[in-house]
Structures are given as structure tokens and as C-alpha cells.
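User: Mind C-alpha cell order:
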Amino acid sequence: MTDTTPTARPIPDQVTLPDGRVELAPGTPPPSGPYANQDLLPVPVDRRTWTTYNFSALWVGMAHNTASWTLASGLIAVGMDWKQAVFTIALANLIVLVPMLLTGHAGPKYGIPFPVFARASFGVRGANLPAVVRALVACGWFGIQTWIGGEAIYFLAGKLIGDGWRNAGHIGGHAWTMWLSFAVFWAIQVAIIHRGMETIRRFENWAAPFVLVGAFVMLWWMSGKAGGVGPLFDQPSKLGWGGDFWKLFWPSLMGMIGFWSTLSLNIPDFTRYGRSQRAQTWGQALGLPTTMTLFAFLSVLVTSGSQAVYGEPVWDPVQLAAKTDNVAGLLYALVTVLVATLSVNIAANLVSPAFDFSNVAPRKVSFRTGALITAVLAVLIFPWKLYSDPQGYIFTWLGLVGGLLGTVAGILVADYWLLRRTRLDLGDLYRPGGAYWYTGGWNWRAVVAFLAGGVLALGGASLKPLTDGRPVPALAPLADYGWAVGLGTSLVLYLTLTLASGRHADG
């Protein structure tokens, strides 16, 4: 089928409420066919009930997790002091908040999840490209977080059972009891997701404050070991504020942005339940930068304290907690890690890819099936390798993720805000042959912009410790700016190709 050009026209099967939110017109049958299922349909306005508090609480629950902790402590481990690490993380979260609010706008307005939102720019079928890419990234995150949770179980059981557990025979470089702990934590998460979204929401409500208290307890413990709070602030930077710092700053900043770049795309999966645009805007603005900065502050102080006490920074909180001789303190710390990891992993890394995989085959893959696919692929990605050292974790994994997903974000922002001016046809998002069918269900302009942005963002990236070398050595100067390069390239190229082909996508 040839391109179809959307035009500004009355849309009979949807209504716009006075507050700007849009839903299917009363009496209109819900979209059906091969590109719709119950999980992908627009959320009715009466079920869009999340308030500013709900969105803020969501971010508190997701930000207070072990991966966020290692994000900040990893910067200490590679040479920054606490001021440099907190500055880098605070700036990154202010930057990533912008595309997050822009892409999140479609959620409360239309009640649609990310893979359906992506159909407007990539095509009804083409949306599977960014959906699967984003889902595979989430699989990596789910695997990393599950490995962290498995570590907590391993150390917790080791304290209770003794040397027989800790010194068990090794398989693949780790004790078999560590692999068992990993499997147990994996199974716990799959069991929770099968109970549905309401169980997840209730879990998030109490998990966030519990984890925050745990972080302050760890700070109190480390300051006591270090002889007061002073030594935590006194650890000097190995880099200074000269060229050595700025050389590390840019890839670190892109890595920090990459940390939440997944959520900056699939945030409509959550904002689709928003009561208003104000709720999602203020909820995210109050929840993300403040929470992440506070948690980063606690993390870098504790890690600086570990440097003062043990002579080297211990960036993994599970490894740090295991150093205490106080059994009660260790149990509390490791249970906190378990709760924190469950909190973020289920909300951020199972919910969204479940929708993404469901979008690939709506009639065959339900939300729960998509979640199970995510959990299985998470193991096959070998998360223990991604998490093996801070250098690879921050610069390889987060850098690659940020560059790739920044490319998708550029296309979404260009299409929804600059071309369509936030106007979408709900029915056509599910309809073959409609405004978003393009050529055979694919918008080639979005695909070209995605590939071009991806090559420039990732082509010069170092793949250590996964492998040596760079895919395109000539692009190495761009590697430190992957997220910005990917977003900027795809946004400009998509706009250029769309306008040059005479398509003014304003309907």
C-alpha cells in the first residue's frame, strides 16, 4: 500500500473533553483486529485516576533502588569525589526529565501505552522496531537487577547457613549457591507480576519509604565506622576539576542519562493512567530529579566512607553490607536491597516490555506472556557480565542504551510535538490502511532516521569489557555524547525527510 497523508479533519470516533483529554466517543466500539488487544486499548477517562502524588511516589519507588545506588557509587569508584558525582547525576536527571515529560504527554491525553504511541511515527507495524529495541533493553535491566537481588539472597543465606553455603563449588565463575539465589529471586518476581498491576501498585506504596530509611541507616553505620561524617566528605577526587575530570564527565553524563532513557520512552505506559497533564508533569518533576539527587548523595557519601574505612571504594551495596559483623544490621540491609530491587525491577523492567512484546503479536501475546518472555530473555543476556565492573556498567552498558534510545526519543518528539502538534487519531492507531499505515504499515522515514542516529551514536563506542575495539573507529569522537548525538540526529533527519516528502503530519 502506498503512503497515505494524514490531514487535519474531524475525527468522528473520538471526543475531546474540556481539559484536553481524548477518548473514544460514547457508543463507539473499541478498536479490534490484529493490532489490538485489551492491554493495548486506550484507558477510558474515568480510569485515568493517578494524581501528582501517585507519580511522585512511583519515582520514589523506582529511584530508591540498588542500581541507582551503584550508579552514583560507581562514579566514586572511577575517580570522582562526592561533589562531582552528585553534580553529574543531578544534571543528567534534569536533562532526561525534558524528553520524559514530552513523551509522557500522550499518556494522559489519549490513554495509550508506548508501543501504540510509537505507531504514529513508525507506523502501525513499524512501531514493533522501537518497541522490541526498548523491550530488549528492559530485559538487560531486568537481568542486572535480578542478579543484584540474587546477590542479596546469597549473602543473607550465607550469614544464616554458614561456610557450607558461602564456599560451595563454583560453576561458571560463581558458587552454585549464587546461581540458585539468582533463580529464586527470578521466580519471586515472576510470581508477583502474575498477580497483576494492582499488586504492583500496593507494593510500591510501602517499598519506597522502607528503602529510603535503609539508605540512611547505611549512612549512619558507615559514618560510625569512619569516625564521623567528616571523613565521608574529605575523600579527594582523583581527577581534580581540570581536563581529567571533563574527559570522564561527558561519557558519565551520557551514561547517567542512559539510566532513565528507557523510562523516557515508555513513560506513557504509566502516564496513560494520569488524571491530568498537570498530574504527570508535576509528579515527575517533583519525583525524578529530587529523589535521584538525594539518593545519589547518600550513595556517594557511603561509598566515600567505605574508601576511608577499607582503603578502596566499595561500590556494590550488597558487597558493602556483607562486611558488617552485626547480623541484625546485615539482615536489615540485605532485606532493604531485596525490597528495593523488587520495587524497581517489576515496575520499570517488567511492566513496559510486557506491553512491548504484546504489541508484536496482540492476538497471541498477553501482558502476562510478555512479562514471562522478558524474564526468560533477561537470563540469556548474561547480566552478570554487564554488572561485573563499574567501567563496563557505566560506559559500555549505559552508554549503548542511552545512545540507542535517545534516537527513538528524537523521532517521537519530532513527530508528536513538531509535526502533529499533539493531535492523534485514536482509531487509526489500531487500523490497517489508516493515517498511520504509511507503506505496508511502516514509515520508512522513521526507520532511516533511527538507523542513521543509531550508527552515529553507537558506531564509535567502546564495547569493553564485552569485547575489544569499536564498530566504526572513525566515529570515536562522538562516542562520549551518544544520547545527545542519537536524539539530535534522528530528530533533525526525521523532520527533514517528512517535510521534504510533502508530508505535514498535523492530523
Notes: The radius of gyration is 23 Å.
